[in-house]
Amino acid sequence: MAFGVPAICRWLGVGTLPGVPNQTLRLVLASASPARRKLLQAAGIEPEVLVSGVDESQVKTDQPEELCLTLARLKAVAVAERLRPAVGDRPLVLGCDSVLAFDGEILGKPDDAADATRRLERMRGNSGVLYTGHCLMDLTMESRVEAVAATTVHFAEISDEEIAAYVATGEPLAVAGSFTIDGLGGAFVERIEGDPGTVVGLSMPLLRNLLIELELSVTDLWTQPAPGGQTVTSLP
Questions:
Q1: Distances (CA, A) of 220 to 25, 27, 178, 209, 216
Q2: Which CA distances in Å does 189 have to 36, 48, 186?
Q3: How high is the pLDDT of residue 233?
Q4: Which fold has domain 8-15+24-217?
Q5: What torsion do the CA atoms of 123, 198, 166, 155 make, to the nearest 10 degrees?
Q6: Which one of the listed residues 97, 103, 115, 160 is annotated catalytic?
Q7: What is the phi/psi pair of residue 230, to 5°?
Q8: How far apart are alpha carbons 155 and 173 in whole angstroms?
Q9: 12 band by pLDDT with thresholds 50, 70 and 90
Q10: pTM for the full model?
Q11: Is residue 97 annotated as part of the catalytic site, yes or no?
């Protein structure tokens, strides 16, 4: 479910570059998230991974849409600045960032186990909105498109014992909002309203629309059949 922030196309250079025949498209994921990488792999796309190293604390805003989109852009730009495309090479850089809007607060990754526990205690039986910002840069055509996706998450009535066991696994400490739907935390989510990929950290329907804005197709990035047959590897 795309949020009410339209995809924005900004030309980074003056004019456009002519198309180059037989270009080699490659997607560079500006994120260390194994979940985002696995989601792309399951969709038949094998991304390269470069971690941006962006200091997320530098962005100050009380608007979750603005925060996740700004961080996604900073990550994509930081990685793009390190790439030097060769002739015939057309790299696309994808930056993503997720935050949970809950009870008037913006929740990224928890500070520690105690923080994760407090959050889960507040979230149980309630709902929040998970926002994921996407920034896709085409280095060859010197263009950038951006958008935000939002999905409403309804949490189950988790017991104190379940919260303690979940926090002890370490999973809530590594993700925005202190929960996942594609891991152990999926058992504690009653239902969602919107694209589940948004909660994982990357909306494939939204990525498809961003590619269309760049006059590309998601099928241009397919490197292997999906959903079965490929080998999904973890990050080194």
A1: 8, 10, 34, 13, 7
A2: 19, 31, 5
A3: 43
A4: Maf protein (3.90.950)
A5: 30
A6: 97
A7: -85, 160
A8: 17
A9: very low
A10: 0.85
A11: yes
What single DSSP character describes residue 74?
Answer: H
- Rg of the chain over Cα atoms, rounded to whole angstroms, equals 18
Question: Hey, what are 206's tokens?
Answer: 């939204």
| Tens-place pLDDT, residues 159-218 | 999 999 999 999 999 999 999 999 999 999 999 999 999 999 999 999 999 999 999 999
Residue with tokens 């995809």: 7
Beta carbons of 90 and 140 less than 8 angstroms apart: yes
What pLDDT was estimated at residue 223?
85
Nearest to 9 by CA among 182, 183, 147: 147
- Return the C-alpha torsion angle 64, 66, 68, 73, nearest 10: 180
